[in-house]
């Protein structure tokens, strides 16, 4: 089987590489010549655990190719994935220009039946627009399918190879059969391929991400209540998570959700609700609460320093929006840095992967440390922004002797509250003020 993946961003590259690993011949197409050349030379353009191994193996075995030519890329491809960017436009709605441009080009050059798959997260109704854009010039038969992606950064390869489910939105039986054949190796464990219409598949993606963002936000509100009521959110989490109707996952309170997906998708769903005159009130509350949650620790830091952060040096552990990624989009750390700098504090940060990206955005507004402990030297407090594994069992003695004050503000609830207090730390976390 031969397929093409147009767009080698996060989703495109992971999908292309993983399909190649199942034995399919994959050509990835991207307009960025520089990036394509690098990939042809074996350079993986993103940080994603496990990807590099598969990437190299499949290039070496001749199943994974890269080109800047759409025409060359789609030659004989039975399935053509569109994994193109859909950035929020000026009005906040997803900008479909890249998707529709490629659809238009496909209409001109497609010379055989193919299934065109929307893998990008796109508003309901996009599949029909893609269909129309291709049909305007198409000389051959084709089908458009929505196949939303549910992979998480940091565990993307695993999520792709063992999906909880695969959603296929199409009313064409021919297309559905081809998609089943392509995904068959990934659902051998019995997880379902769920077939539905185009629009329902498109909405499924937004519903999934918005539901998860709501689940996290609900727990963040419970955490805020715990602080006021003298309860412990971690115990409440265990108490409710064992109810199979609620589930254990995505119940961790913290400093808000970030990343390139949840914030964008929650806002896009709220907006498309508005377009059909529906007031999606829960989503508005979710966005509002999450915004406040991101900088929740700052007031506690400020309180510790009697309201004056001027000249204080704050060490930050973690910059990425979550562990195992260098992605800093909508990262809570950035909002905290902004608030700290505004209050006149100095920031020194350490992150195992994301420092280069932050330097690109903030330049020399903050300083970067070569490792976690160097960041603490002469700092007045430590704030933990990302739950990287290496922060979970640190050398507390070293933390205490490096910091000017033994104060830790933990946005990810990494340590035991009583233990920290026994060790003499001033320790503040989220929703555990028992
Ligand atoms: C998310 C979804 O989980 C994927 O299923 C989806 O495919 C992806 O968006 C997408 O639309 O492309 P991702 O953004 O990589 O994946 O990250 P998550 O692991 O879902 O975390 C999102 C945010 O929620 C992070 O900021 C994380 O710190 C936060 N979070 C997560 C919590 O605060 N508490 C939790 O219990 C779980």
From TrEMBL:
Catalytic activity from the UniProt record: UDP-alpha-D-glucose + 2 NAD(+) + H2O = UDP-alpha-D-glucuronate + 2 NADH + 3 H(+)
Q: Where is the UDP-glucose/GDP-mannose dehydrogenase C-terminal domain?
A: 315-417
* Taxonomy, superkingdom: Bacteria
Quick one: which pathway?
A: Nucleotide-sugar biosynthesis; UDP-alpha-D-glucuronate biosynthesis; UDP-alpha-D-glucuronate from UDP-alpha-D-glucose: step 1/1
EC class? oxidoreductase
Q: Where does NAD(+) bind?
A: 30, 35, 86, 121, 153, 264, 329
MF GO annotations: NAD binding; UDP-glucose 6-dehydrogenase activity
Name the residues that bind substrate.
150-153, 205, 250-254, 258, 322
Keywords, ordered alphabetically: NAD, Oxidoreductase
Which InterPro entries would you find in this protein's record?
A: 6-PGluconate_DH-like_C_sf, NAD(P)-bd_dom_sf, UDP-Glc/GDP-Man, UDP-Glc/GDP-Man_DH_C, UDP-Glc/GDP-Man_DH_C_sf, UDP-Glc/GDP-Man_DH_dimer, UDP-Glc/GDP-Man_DH_N, UDPglc_DH_bac
So where's the catalytic machinery, residue-wise?
A: 261 (nucleophile)
Enzyme Commission numbers on file:
1.1.1.22
Q: Does the keyword Cell inner membrane apply?
A: no
Q: Name the GO terms of the biological process aspect.
A: polysaccharide biosynthetic process
Reply yes or no: does the keyword Manganese apply: no
Family in the record: Belongs to the UDP-glucose/GDP-mannose dehydrogenase family.
PANTHER family, sorted: UDP-GLUCOSE 6-DEHYDROGENASE TUAD
Report the protein name in the record.
UDP-glucose 6-dehydrogenase
Q: To which species is this protein native?
A: Persicobacter diffluens
Phylogenetic lineage: Bacteria, Pseudomonadati, Bacteroidota, Cytophagia, Cytophagales
């Amino acid at each position: 089987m031969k397929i093409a993946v147009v767009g080698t961003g996060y989703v495109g590259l992971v999908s292309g590489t993983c399909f190649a690993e199942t034995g399919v011949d994959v050509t990835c197409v991207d307009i960025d010549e520089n990036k394509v050349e690098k990939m042809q030379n074996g350079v993986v353009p993103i940080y994603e655990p496990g990807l590099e191994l598969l990437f190299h193996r499949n290039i070496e075995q001749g199943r994974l190719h890269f080109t800047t030519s759409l025409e060359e890329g789609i030659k004989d491809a039975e399935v053509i994935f569109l994994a193109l960017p859909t950035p929020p436009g000026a009005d906040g709605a997803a900008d479909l220009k890249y998707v529709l441009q490629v659809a238009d080009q496909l209409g001109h050059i497609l010379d055989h039946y193919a299934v065109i798959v929307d893998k990008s997260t796109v508003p309901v109704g996009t599949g029909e627009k893609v269909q129309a854009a291709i049909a305007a010039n198409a000389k051959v038969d084709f089908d458009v399918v929505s196949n939303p992606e549910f992979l998480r950064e940091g565990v993307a390869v695993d999520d792709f190879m063992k999906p909880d489910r695969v959603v296929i939105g199409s009313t064409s039986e021919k297309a559905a059969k081809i998609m089943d054949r392509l995904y068959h190796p990934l659902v051998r464990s019995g997880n379902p391929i769920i077939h539905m219409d185009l629009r329902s598949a498109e909405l499924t993606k937004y519903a999934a991400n918005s539901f998860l963002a709501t689940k996290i936000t609900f727990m963040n509100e419970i955490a805020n209540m715990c602080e006021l009521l003298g309860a412990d959110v971690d115990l409440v989490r265990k108490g409710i998570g064992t109810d199979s109707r609620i589930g254990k996952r995505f119940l961790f309170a913290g400093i808000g959700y970030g990343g390139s997906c949840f914030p964008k998708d929650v806002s896009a769903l709220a907006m498309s609700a508005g377009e059909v005159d529906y007031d999606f009130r829960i989503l508005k509350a979710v966005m509002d609460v999450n915004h406040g949650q991101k900088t929740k620790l700052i007031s506690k830091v400020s309180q510790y320093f009697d309201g004056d952060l001027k000249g204080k040096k704050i060490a930050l552990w973690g910059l990425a929006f979550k562990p195992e990624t260098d992605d800093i989009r909508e990262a809570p750390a950035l909002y905290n840095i902004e608030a700290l700098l505004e209050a006149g504090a100095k920031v020194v940060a350490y992150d195992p992967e994301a420092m280069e990206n932050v330097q690109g955005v903030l330049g020399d507004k903050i300083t970067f440390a070569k490792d976690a402990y160097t960041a603490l030297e002469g700092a007045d407090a430590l704030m933990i922004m990302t739950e990287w594994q290496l922060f979970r069992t640190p050398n507390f003695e070293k933390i205490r002797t490096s910091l000017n004050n033994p104060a830790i503000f933990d946005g990810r609830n990494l340590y035991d509250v009583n233990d920290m207090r026994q060790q003499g730390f001033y320790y503040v976390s989220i929703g555990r003020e028992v």
